[in-house]
């Protein structure tokens, strides 16, 4: 199922389109086709900064739009992603657009073409399934990237990758924007099965009875207040033999393929449970509390098309968190998959409980590394704001790989310390631990809680509570659920190396 309405193609010559986007640097000659000097552009308030746009001329039926790309000698892929996003918004009233943007900037042409294509798709995407006005959103249907013949192949390959990744992000956004009644845990698991079938993944779905039998006390406990049953979805990707020619064979029981496991928090709606969230219009966004699971599913959906050479497994931990007469209460003690017992001191700290079962199952597979992604703590959002996620973990080498993926995709992360001395804040006098550590260092104590279930395997935790939602359009981000972390996980999966 296509989640973006935009079709992106590559050509050698400028086709006949309603709009032509012309990249303009802040420090080099102004392209002649604009018919304006640098002084005239400056007088109009346009100086070529990344993301600036200006309609400068209407020639016949063709509209020209100048788009700023910054300094010509330093414009990188992430600049051109944001420039493409600005251009597609400026052209949103028209049906067709062509641009030489993929030929701008410095760097690998395929990488730049991928970034430009991602910017085009992500900025034009809107979740409009529930709008009665079907003209809602951008009217733009097609974009042609015009490049020189010598780089046509590289640009075409990069743009193809951009379409795969951009479509995945749009899918994750659509899932996270869906109202709770439109996407229960069962519905999401059903959709995950469809995605797996379409994208070459193996899929297994675990219902409530299976989760009970497996001892997944975190999932069962969080789900107790809901009339909708939980689901855990396991997705598995293994590259085809033909794509692994030349790879060395594994020794003994160890596979030659690096094995990475992703675990996504899939709380379909979070009311806080018995620890009910206060009445606040912003809590409507708690439908996006499953953004971690959506990002993992979306990332997994790209791996076959991108030719990923690593073995990747994923767990989507899906339930909602609601109050009722049967709901989990403060003081209850849950027994998790790895047999550790947890005393509940706040039912609104539920994400770590479902992740605990997923991490435990991941650890049992003896992977090379585990990454989890979750809208986990308000503390992290308060500390880092809406532009970046926190990353914590138990292995510096693996965290370096996560940070490298962040830099490559312009999905910013900031490492917070996994301060071991804070572990005592989680001590319980009747169980192995509590599910919260008090009023201080909430993001860190949440990560310390998760670390108890990783089995000592290299692990990183991404807390995306801040950037999971955007209040407005900015660069490649659109208002609403952002699907933050999807592109980071794709890059991490492709480039993961065991240490």
Structure description:
The protein is an alpha/beta fold and 499 residues long. It folds into two domains: 160 residues, Leucine Aminopeptidase, subunit E, domain 1 (3-Layer(aba) Sandwich); 318 residues, Aminopeptidase. It is built from 13 helices and 19 strands. The strands form four sheets. The chain has an eight-stranded mixed β-sheet with strand order 7-8-10-9-13-17-14-15, sandwiched between helices. Strands 1-6-5-2-4-3 form a six-stranded mixed β-sheet, with helices on one face. Strand 11 and strand 12 form a beta hairpin. The chain is elongated, with a radius of gyration of 24 Å.
SSE map:
Elements: E1 7-11, E2 19-24, H1 38-43, E3 53-59, E4 62-68, H2 77-90, E5 96-99, H3 109-124, E6 142-146, H4 152-177, H5 185-199, E7 202-206, H6 208-213, H7 217-223, E8 231-237, E9 259-270, H8 291-306, E10 311-321, E11 333-335, E12 341-343, H9 351-364, E13 369-374, H10 378-384, E14 389-393, H11 396-409, E15 413-415, E16 433-434, H12 442-451, E17 459-463, E18 469-470, E19 480-481, H13 486-495
Parallel strand pairs: 1-6, 2-4, 2-5, 5-6, 9-10, 9-13, 12-16, 13-17, 14-15
Antiparallel strand pairs: 3-4, 7-8, 8-10, 11-12, 14-17, 18-19
